[in-house]
Amino acid sequence: MRRAAVLFTAALASCAGSGRGATSTVLTDEIFEDLPAPATAVFEPAGSFSFQGTAYRCGRFFYSFNGSVEECAQFYRGTMTQPPYSWTLTEETSPGPDTLHMVFAKGEDRCTLDLDRLPTTVRIIARVNYVR
After folding, report:
1. Contact, 14 vs 131, CB < 8 A?
2. Distances in Å between the alpha carbon of 18 and those of 23, 32, 60, 113?
3. Where are the alpha helices (DSSP H) in 1-132?
4. pLDDT tens-digit profile of 55-82?
5. pTM of the predicted model as reported, rounded to 2 decimal places
6. Contact of 11 with 58, CB cutoff 8 Å
7. Confidence band of 4 (pLDDT split at 50, 70, 90)
8. Pick from 107, 109, 73: nearest CA to 93
9. CA-to-CA distance for 34 and 80, rounded, in angstroms?
10. Regarding beta strands 99-106 and 26-28, do their DSSP bridges make them parallel or antiparallel, or are they unpaired?
């Protein structure tokens, strides 16, 4: 139980705006409905988490994707910005070869996606209102 409390405290500390009028918070690994992933991406629950209060939400989700970084980026460019997701792409940078950083916004929420080519797969890290 103590380990769970420590993990919860660390996760909460990484979430932007986590003090905004929240009355309850439940830590889970439930993926937000407005955060899509490519159909062939595999969710990795280890290290993934989410929680929602009455006035905020926060999460970090890991996936592996068998394809290229560009194929994965095309999915997010085309899907995240359309209903029912309706995010706005605000930033896209490539900090190195075979890696891409994308930032989306919707209302007060901010979603960052890091797409990194590993030897056998693309690693997707999706963060919503998460401060590193």
Report:
1. yes
2. 11, 16, 14, 20
3. 2-13, 69-79
4. 889 999 999 999 999 999 999 999 999 9
5. 0.82
6. yes
7. very low
8. 73
9. 8
10. unpaired
